[in-house]
Write a structure and sequence with these properties.
- The protein has a three-stranded parallel β-sheet.
- Helix 1 packs across helix 2.
- About 35% of the residues lie in helices and about 15% in strands.
- The chain is globular and about 30 Å long.
- The longest helix is centred in the middle third of the chain and has 13 residues.
- It is of the alpha/beta class.
- The model has no long low-confidence stretch (mean pLDDT about 90).
Length: about 80
Amino acid sequence: MIAAHRDRFQVCALAAGSGHPRLLASQIAALRPTEVAVPTDDAARAVMAGLAALGISHGDTPRITAGPSAAAQVAGGGADVVLN
């Protein structure tokens, strides 16, 4: 839905598990959130590697929060709508 209506939505944050870091990297590239949450430091490194593989430099990446409560932290970041 968001991809079809990019003019109506701004994605503030994404949260994901650690199973598909390349998919998350492609979603980050497409949606350009300012924050991303993943469950572990290893997942954060894998996402950063996926972004690098897409040609996205470290300076253009969102803030990545890692840890068991990372998703709750980014969900409470002041968005008007939180989708799960």
